[in-house]
TrEMBL record:
<keyword id="KW-0812">Transmembrane</keyword>
<feature type="transmembrane region" description="Helical">
    <location>
        <begin position="509"/>
        <end position="529"/>
    </location>
</feature>
<feature type="transmembrane region" description="Helical">
    <location>
        <begin position="198"/>
        <end position="217"/>
    </location>
</feature>
<feature type="transmembrane region" description="Helical">
    <location>
        <begin position="30"/>
        <end position="47"/>
    </location>
</feature>
<keyword id="KW-1133">Transmembrane helix</keyword>
<feature type="transmembrane region" description="Helical">
    <location>
        <begin position="294"/>
        <end position="316"/>
    </location>
</feature>
<feature type="transmembrane region" description="Helical">
    <location>
        <begin position="111"/>
        <end position="134"/>
    </location>
</feature>
<feature type="transmembrane region" description="Helical">
    <location>
        <begin position="237"/>
        <end position="258"/>
    </location>
</feature>
<feature type="transmembrane region" description="Helical">
    <location>
        <begin position="430"/>
        <end position="454"/>
    </location>
</feature>
<feature type="transmembrane region" description="Helical">
    <location>
        <begin position="270"/>
        <end position="288"/>
    </location>
</feature>
<feature type="transmembrane region" description="Helical">
    <location>
        <begin position="59"/>
        <end position="80"/>
    </location>
</feature>
<feature type="transmembrane region" description="Helical">
    <location>
        <begin position="466"/>
        <end position="489"/>
    </location>
</feature>
<feature type="transmembrane region" description="Helical">
    <location>
        <begin position="328"/>
        <end position="346"/>
    </location>
</feature>
<protein>
    <recommendedName>
        <fullName>Ligase</fullName>
    </recommendedName>
</protein>
<feature type="transmembrane region" description="Helical">
    <location>
        <begin position="159"/>
        <end position="178"/>
    </location>
</feature>
<keyword id="KW-0472">Membrane</keyword>
Length: 661
């Protein structure tokens, strides 16, 4: 959806694609490891190549390469008769070894009975709804992407790009995990989870190394594309930004330390225990350059982990163990308050100390004015919370459309609270975002699929790892966060397989068809209810024309300094003609370096019938036409035989966005 220069797109895309595709073709195991590793090391590869901030671009190449690698590998193996014939002869050693490395991966369940199927169908419907709202199906462009300005300073492509910022990482991660599970040789999730976790730990190690260099040497080391993170003194590693690092770092480190503690308890090997302690101290030191989300997630998780570990080691009785844990849990808020109170007296420029001081300022007014206390804690999130609640009240049941919150912040015509900062963000936590974008009905559909996954895998306790991170933002808006979230929810750190209760119901005749009906029916009903608003508001450019009460400019990119020119991509464009006689004769010059055999201009009446048709003349810097609009012409249409990328000055359009000469 977002126009990306080819010289920036292809180098990083092809490198990501190769990193995912070829390991998958070689062996299932290494394909998973390389994909998980690439998630946390390749995310900002486009930025390092000079590409500006692009929301949905990120890891498209990596996931597309991995998914196509899985499908291609399985397709070729089936064509070679892996499931029907014996292995090749010893003389065909390369082919024989390849088939041994990739055993049978056929699932017993039909694809439409998979729990992934309904979720993917839901995401497809959300994408179609976005396409209708932000693009439509143009009468001129047919099934192509309809170009126009959604806001005076935002094109329709950029508007849908904000939705793609959520849809693309979510869809690709779900489709990738679905493809991996369909190629599993057995229903067990053990090997898949362990191999992905190995890749995650490799990615964590590389990020810890980069963060160390950033903390000791310079924050500018591999920091391109992290927006404001470096300016506020935070280390990001190779993660998206400090917002991602502040929760991914403690969660991944917690999994790593838990693995070491588990190995120590099984083998009594002191090396694992020493490494766990050193890892804890090292990550805590790196946390000095992280945001407040890191300290909340890290301190609470480590405290709960220590409570469980010590009670397991020192208390044998299950009853006494539970009572002791409950008592210690009650002490956590008290210890947290005392810690923040003590830190508030330290004169250091650290985020943790700044958080402590803001917390102590907010405590005295918490009872009388909770919102004022929240403002003292975090003014930005307080404003985002207010805007979010205003939007929820407007469309409580069906929501405002996925990815619509950043668009609301950019809306110059929105009535309500305005933000005091220029940065475009999401609601303060995941749950508010879900209700704002999808409403109560859409949130119910989303949680239906998540609950289905958790029940199928018996991982109800596993989702607790995401409770704290989800309270500090929309963690699936970036590909690294989306991958880790869905890995924990759908697979689980322990890699457990199917739950016994779900397996029991799955074997009945009625259960799988019922799930299929619900998986299709619930998303379809939500989409049908949501689409009713199009009857009143219209779709695509008509929707915005009715709201803005002006004609649309079929532009891919709006005018920006220093040239203030509209940029157009495609083959067909149509505009309303100015009604003033003095503005209906003159010259149109398409500034472009592209070439097309034929570029023509068509004049249409109010019924869209052609009344005159002429050709543009090719010049050194583009295409030119001079003349006068015929009598009765209401619309002007440009057609190119080949795809063009050209520019027109803002002065080419009047105050109502009608074209003038």
């Amino acid at each position: 959806m977002e126009p990306v220069p080819g010289n920036h797109f292809y180098p990083s895309f092809l490198l990501q694609f190769a990193f995912g595709f070829f390991p998958q073709m070689y062996q299932r195991k290494w394909g998973r490891i390389f994909t998980a590793l690439g998630v946390f090391t390749f995310l900002r590869l486009p930025y390092l190549s000079g590409l500006p901030m692009v929301g949905s671009y990120q890891l498209v190449g990596l996931f597309l390469g991995s998914i196509l690698g899985i499908w291609t590998r399985e397709f070729i193996l089936v064509l070679l008769g892996r499931n029907e014939t014996a292995l090749p002869k010893q003389s065909e050693q390369i082919l024989r070894d390849w088939m041994i490395r990739n055993p049978t991966g056929k699932s017993n369940l039909p694809i439409w009975y998979s729990t992934y199927f309904g979720f993917i169908f839901f995401l497809c419907l959300l994408t179609v709804l976005c396409l209708f709202q932000y693009q439509g199906l143009g009468l001129v462009t047919g099934l192509g992407i309809q170009e126009y300005l959604y806001f005076p300073s935002l094109s329709s492509r950029e508007a849908m790009g904000l939705s793609c910022k959520i849809l693309v990482p979510t869809s690709f991660v779900i489709l990738y995990l679905f493809s991996e599970e369909r190629s599993m040789p057995t229903p067990s999730k053990d090997s898949l989870s362990e191999q992905l976790r190995f890749g995650l730990f490799l990615g964590l190690g590389i990020n810890l190394l980069v963060m160390s260099i950033q903390s000791i040497w310079s924050l500018d080391f591999f920091s391109e594309g992290t927006l404001e993170s470096v300016k506020v003194g935070r280390s990001t590693g190779l993660f998206q930004d400090s917002g991602s690092a502040s929760w991914i770092l403690p969660v991944l480190s917690l999994l790593w330390i838990s693995k070491l503690i588990q190995n120590w308890r099984k083998s009594k090997e002191r090396f694992s225990l020493v490494l766990a302690v050193l890892s804890f101290l090292f990550v805590t030191w790196l946390g000095l350059r992280q945001g407040k989300a890191f300290w909340v997630v890290w301190s609470i998780s480590i405290t709960i982990g220590l409570i469980h570990l010590t009670t397991d080691l020192w208390i044998i009785s299950i009853t006494k163990k539970r009572i002791t844990r409950m008592g210690l849990y009650l002490l956590i808020p008290i210890l947290g308050f005392l810690t923040l109170y003590g830190l508030s007296f330290i004169q250091k420029d650290w985020d943790l100390i700044a958080l402590s001081k803001r917390f102590m300022d907010a405590v005295p007014v918490w009872r009388k004015e909770p919102y004022l206390a929240f403002e003292k804690m975090d003014l930005t999130r307080a404003e985002l919370l207010t805007i979010c609640m205003e939007g929820i009240k407007t469309n409580l049941w069906l929501g405002n459309g996925i990815g619509s919150f950043p668009l609301a912040l950019l809306d110059p015509f929105r009535v309500g609270t305005k933000t005091s900062i220029a940065m475009i963000d999401f609601p303060p936590n995941f749950f508010l975002w879900l209700v704002y974008d999808l409403g109560i009905l859409g949130s119910f559909v989303f949680f239906f699929f998540i609950s289905l996954f958790l029940w199928e895998r018996g991982l109800w306790k596993q989702c607790l790892l995401l409770v704290l991170p989800f309270l500090f933002g929309v963690q699936i808006q970036n590909s690294d966060g989306a991958f880790l979230c869905f890995y924990l929810v759908l697979l689980g750190e322990k890699g457990t397989g199917f739950s016994a209760t779900f397996d029991k119901f799955r074997k009945t005749i009625w259960f799988s068809p019922l799930l299929l009906i619900l998986s299709l029916g619930l998303p379809l009903n939500y989409a049908l209810f949501y689409s009713q608003r199009y009857w009143d508001l219209g779709i695509g450019s008509e929707f915005r024309k009715n709201q803005l009460r002006e004609y649309q400019v079929a532009a891919t990119l709006p005018p920006r300094s220093p040239n203030f020119e509209y940029e157009f991509h495609g083959k067909v464009w149509e505009w309303k003609l100015s009604e003033f006689g003095s503005a209906r004769s003159g010259r149109i010059f398409l500034e472009t370096t592209d070439k097309s055999p034929v570029v023509e201009v068509l004049f249409l009446n109010s019924d869209k019938n052609i009344i005159k048709q002429e050709l543009f003349e090719e010049t050194k810097y583009g295409y030119s036409w001079s003349g006068e609009c015929p009598k009765g012409a209401s619309f002007l249409r440009l057609k190119s035989r080949s795809r063009l990328e050209f520019r027109l000055p803002r002065s080419q359009f009047d105050g109502n966005n009608r074209i003038q000469f």
